[in-house]
Design goal:
Helix content of chain A: 25-40%
Order of helices and strands of chain B: HHHHHHHHHHHHHHHHHEHHEH
CATH topology of the domain at 125-261 in chain A: Immunoglobulin-like
Radius of gyration of chain A: 26 Å
Mean pLDDT of chain A: 81
CATH superfamily of the domain at 51-292 in chain B: Cytochrome c oxidase-like, subunit I domain
Largest sheet of chain A: 6 strands, mixed
Distance between the termini of chain A: 65 Å
Helix content of chain B: 55-70%
Distance between the termini of chain B: 53 Å
CATH superfamily of the domain at 125-261 in chain A: Cupredoxins -  blue copper proteins
Low-confidence stretches of chain A: 275-339
Strand order of the largest sheet of chain B: 1-2
Largest sheet of chain B: 2 strands, antiparallel
Domain Cytochrome oxidase subunit I profile (chain B): 36-552
Mean pLDDT of chain B: 92
CATH class of the domain at 51-292 in chain B: Mainly Alpha
Number of strands of chain A: 11
Oligomer: heterodimer
Radius of gyration of chain B: 25 Å
Subcellular location (chain B): Cell membrane
CATH topology of the domain at 51-292 in chain B: Cytochrome C Oxidase, Chain A
Family (chain B): Belongs to the heme-copper respiratory oxidase family.
Structural class of chain A: alpha+beta
Pathway (chain B): Energy metabolism; oxidative phosphorylation
Number of strands of chain B: 2
Strand order of the largest sheet of chain A: 8-5-1-2-3-11
Transmembrane segments (chain B): 12-35, 56-76, 96-123, 135-156, 183-207, 227-249, 269-292, 304-328, 340-362, 374-398, 410-430, 451-471, 491-512, 585-618
Number of helices of chain A: 7
Chain lengths: 339, 648
């Protein structure tokens, strides 16, 4: 079996090339939701390695044993119809494996769609995350503050992101804290997460949304409760209010650095109606078709940025942003980044 | 009229493409005139209704598109080979990955497979032609001109840039103001209609035109896979037709099906697209399973193990393929219940697929395996596709998918499925059936060189992407920062891509070399084949079989050889054949112009072209051409010549 040699060498070199497991952000979780997902992934990898092993061993065995050689020249294999017992075996065993994985999937999907067990007794901190052309707006309705392109959260606290979009579909993803979920214009989606460790984590839009997609990253900074309270207090004291006019200006700009405000846009530009899945029992008004009408009306007032009149291959570089976009979990402190 | 909107400006790459397209066109025109080939081209190819020639044209077009899509791929891997590369800008990169996806799936994999089925299926079932030969020509020319329409977008007006899945509202006029997505809706629509016609044509061909004695459960596995595939086509493509029509209304006429305001639903597009899009995956993969089944049986000298369970597994896959579309947007917030349902249906596909893998392995068992080039591709398919399959199961788990969705992990997975599952298969089928169509084999030594380049480089290119996905790299990023740490693995992937390119160039060189130097084959059964296509001459005469074969067993030709069961018992009689027609070609040309005018909202010419389409359709339906007969003498003369190894 000549072909296995290079293949194994390849696998080995790839494993050696890996700069260590810690750089696999998905498998390096820092919160219960991401940990559930990471455990699920590792479990599925192990089960699948088992399946691969069976196929590969059988494969190598038949190829080595039954290749055409001088010794079996002229040998004409017999007609073989199949074997009911064998075929049943390789129908039943995969069904068992799939059934097992299905149970795991249903359990873990339910787990990550809800607040983590460890944080069940807390009322989550609600953060509205909305996207508009290649930037993220984070509104904290309880605190009455809003940030752009960065989000601060207290450690050991249940957080509930409610996502929507002022334009194309985006997907909010902080791989070390939780899996991603789409943000759309006509529906509110919910993401539960919480962090066990303080630190700065990479967050980004994971769904292609046009020209500035590659730069649509933000920093998720998890800080101690005290630091978080101090930060909120500081923002309320020093940051300017977010006026409707200012907000329109933000929506109309393609790229922005970090911004901080001491009020949210939720009052004058409410989010779309919530999705039925998350509304059950909420007692809120259902408006499945169009989402919240206020939000729709709002579209007239806040149209998405005018498409640029230039055609595609304008070779001009990306517009300079006021501040460098956070490209990785940098250890930059953001308390003072008021606009 | 505003000429500005035709212009695509800036990049030297675009000018290069324009010049090379112009030079190639001039070269072809001058060449045809100089060698006085215009008449030949018209009589023998443009007007042909012969399924073999149509198949060859499909395959030629697919090979061209393979290189177009391959160049796109190289540009993408080069752009992401190192952090902060300045080779392409964001807009250009977006157009490149969008057209790469569209071209590779719709204008490379599918036509290649349809080409092979055109050439082989009628031969495998012992038929003289497909059920509707003229419609077959219509199918081809609609596909061809749809593909051309998409290709000129590169130099006229701008290519689609919202991803091959063209999610709304990104693909709407508001966020993609160029004509690129107009091209998307119209080019796909035109070629999609062609595919739908093929679907109907082949279902009827296979159900109604099999040789006497060939019961459904005696059909060769490739024919079975084609039958099931075409049933999927007939159910899936109307959805695409409707979705593209709505898209066209949104973009050209200001309707608001998928917009953000006024009741539009962006999720509706995602649902419609994937209700077609997921079955589409099986449209390209099931025939590949058929090709592999033929090749494994031939080169291990054994009949296919577990024939019945192979057929049923394909039927189950085809049913499940319609029940899994929502796994393409687990993250759209449909909640745990819906996601769990689609997780289970998706994972269920692994069961019938696993049945096939084990049946292939047991076909090899106790066989006498020879490692020819087509067999090498088939054997490489098994371990690589299994990786694609198990990562597919991993992706199917909704919860875990929240972490993989839209990342490089997904990109790695679908390349691990589609390249061995479709590309290796068409290359294997190409090598395997080449001597049938042209009467000589491709060179084995060059074939194996090319094989090793392709298979090893494939793994070098795509295996690193699994890790990049787990590192947090999403797909469709035109650049990334140094600190992200994505650099080294992307560079490795680029190195692999270069290797792949070398492999494919070697493949084409092999075709050239073999055409010049390979000895002509006189036996017409170079691989010691098992199915009916090997029972006629290579290359086969226009009527395929002088006498329609009588089938008694599966692997009819093999039994005929081994157990002396006669295949051809009847006397030669006169043969009825359809006559050539130029109308399908003209219809294709008019459709091309209709699409082009609509892309640029040029209403008056578009209406003229639309009327032209109607006139051509009317002309074709009132055509009273009943074909012609080949007399017994003529058949005898042809057969005699072919026996002596001459070409006709």
């Amino acid at each position: 079996m000549k072909k296995k040699g290079p293949l194994y060498a390849l696998f080995l070199s790839l494993i050696l090339l890996l700069p260590g497991c810690s750089s696999l952000t998905v498998l390096n979780p820092k919160g219960p939701s991401a940990r559930t997902l990471s455990d699920t992934i590792i479990l599925s990898i192990l089960v699948m390695l088992g399946v691969l092993a069976v196929v590969y061993i059988l494969y190598i065995f038949v190829l080595v044993k039954y290749r055409a050689k001088k010794s079996n020249e002229g040998y004409i294999p017999e007609h073989e119809e199949g074997n009911k017992v064998l075929e049943t075996i390789w129908i039943v065993i995969p069904i068992i494996i799939v059934a097992f994985l299905s149970v795991v999937t249903v359990k873990t999907t339910n787990a990550v769609e809800n607040q983590a067990k460890e944080y069940k007794d807390q009322t989550p901190l609600v953060i509205y995350a909305s996207s508009s052309n290649w930037k993220w707006h984070f509104s904290y309705p309880e605190e009455g503050i809003e940030t752009v392109n960065y989000v601060n959260m207290p450690v050991h606290r249940a957080v509930e992101f409610r996502m929507y979009s002022f334009g194309s579909i985006t997907s909010l993803w902080i791989p070390q804290l939780a899996g991603q979920k789409y943000a759309m214009s006509d529906m509110l989606t919910t993401l539960h997460l919480s962090a066990d460790t303080e630190g700065s984590y990479m967050g980004r839009n994971a769904n292609f949304s046009g020209k500035g997609f590659a730069h649509m990253e933000f920093e998720a900074l998890v800080m101690s409760s005290k630091d978080y309270e101090d930060w909120v207090k500081e923002v309320k004291e020093t940051a300017p209010k977010l006026t409707e006019k200012e907000f329109k200006g933000l929506l109309a700009t393609d790229y922005l650095g970090r911004k901080t405000y001491s009020s949210t846009h939720l009052e004058f530009s409410p989010p779309p109606g919530e999705h039925s899945e998350h509304m059950s029992g909420g007692g809120k008004e259902m408006d499945m078709d169009n989402g919240n009408m206020d939000h729709q009306d709002n579209k007239e007032i806040h149209p998405s940025p005018e498409p640029s009149s230039e055609t595609e291959f304008d070779s001009k570089p990306n517009p300079e942003v006021e501040q460098p976009l956070p490209s990785s979990p940098v250890d930059e402190h953001t308390h003072d980044s008021n606009s | 009229m505003d000429l500005d909107k035709f212009k695509v400006h800036g990049e030297p790459l675009i000018y290069g493409a324009m010049i090379s397209i112009a030079l190639a066109t001039i070269g072809i025109l001058v060449g045809l005139t100089y060698f006085k080939k215009w008449g030949y081209l018209w009589r023998e190819w443009l007007t042909t209704v012969d399924h073999k020639k149509i198949g060859v044209m499909y395959i030629l077009a697919a090979l061209l598109m393979l290189f177009r899509g391959g160049v796109d791929a190289m540009m993408m891997r080069l752009q992401t080979a190192a952090p902060e590369m300045k080779f392409l800008d964001a807009q250009h990169y977006n157009e490149v990955f969008t057209t790469h996806g569209l071209i590779m799936i719709l204008f490379m994999a599918m036509p290649f497979i349809i080409g092979l089925m055109n050439v082989i299926v009628p031969l495998q079932i012992g038929a003289r032609d497909v059920a509707f030969p003229r419609l077959n020509a219509v199918s081809f020319w609609l596909f061809f001109f749809g593909a051309m329409l998409l290709n000129i977008s590169f130099v006229i007006g701008g290519s689609p840039d919202a991803g091959w899945s063209a999610y709304f509202p990104l693909a709407s006029l508001e966020f993609s103001p160029t004509v690129g997505n107009n091209y998307y809706s119209l080019a796909l629509q035109i070629s999609g209609i062609g595919t739908l016609i093929t679907g109907v044509n082949f279902i009827v061909t296979i159900l109604k035109m099999r040789a006497p004695g060939m019961k459904l459960m005696k059909m060769p596995m490739f024919t079975w896979s084609v039958l099931i595939t075409n049933v999927i086509i007939v159910f899936a493509f109307p959805v695409l037709t409707v979705a593209l029509a709505l898209m066209m209304f949104d973009r050209l006429f200001g309707s608001q099906f998928f917009t953000m305001a006024n009741g539009g639903m962006d999720m509706l597009w995602a649902n419609l697209f994937w209700v077609w899009g997921h079955p589409e995956v099986y449209i390209v993969i099931l025939p590949a399973f058929g090709i592999y089944s033929e090749i494994i049986a031939t080169f291990s000298k054994k009949n296919l193990y577990g024939y019945t369970s192979m057929v049923f597994s394909m039927l189950i896959i085809s049913l499940l393929s319609f029940l899994v579309w929502a796994h393409h947007f687990y993250t759209m917030g449909q909640g745990a219940m819906v996601n769990s349902f689609f997780s289970i249906t998706t994972m269920a596909i692994a069961v019938p697929t696993g049945v096939k893998i084990f049946n292939w392995l047991f076909t090899l068992r106790k066989g006498r395996i020879t490692f020819t080039t087509p067999m090498l591709y088939t054997l490489a398919f098994i371990p690589i596709f299994t990786i694609g399959g198990v990562t597919g199961v991993m992706l199917a788990m909704a919860s875990a998918d929240y972490q993989y969705h839209n990342t490089m992990f997904l990109v790695a997975h679908f390349h691990y499925v589609l390249i061995p599952g479709a590309v290796f298969a068409v290359i294997a089928g190409f090598h395997y059936w080449f001597p049938k169509v042209f009467g000589f084999r491709l060179n084995e030594r060059l074939g194996k060189h090319s094989f090793w380049w392709i298979v090893i480089s494939f793994n070098v290119t795509f295996f690193p992407l699994f890790f990049l996905g787990l590192m947090g790299m999403t797909r469709r990023m035109y650049t990334y920062s140094e600190e992200s740490g994505f650099g080294p693995l992307n560079m490795l992937s680029f190195v692999g891509a270069v290797g792949l390119a070398i492999g494919f160039v070697l493949l084409v060189y092999n075709i050239y070399w073999s055409t010049r130097y390979m000895p002509r084959d006189t036996t017409s059964d170079p691989w010691d084949g098992r199915t009916l296509e090997w029972a006629t001459h290579s290359p086969m005469p226009v009527y395929n079989f002088a006498v329609v074969p009588k089938v008694r067993t599966r692997d009819a030709f093999w039994s005929a050889k081994q157990e002396n069961m006669p295949l051809f018992e009847d006397k030669i009689t006169k043969i009825h054949m359809p006559s050539n027609t130029g109308k399908p070609f003209i219809l294709g040309v008019i459709f091309f112009f209709l699409g082009f005018f609509l892309v640029f909202s040029m209403w008056i010419p578009a209406i003229v072209a639309g009327v032209g389409v109607l006139i051509m359709l009317a002309a074709m339906s009132f055509d009273r051409d009943h074909g012609y007969y080949i007399s017994v003498d003529e058949v005898m003369a042809t057969e005699k010549k072919l026996m002596r190894g001459e070409t006709v």
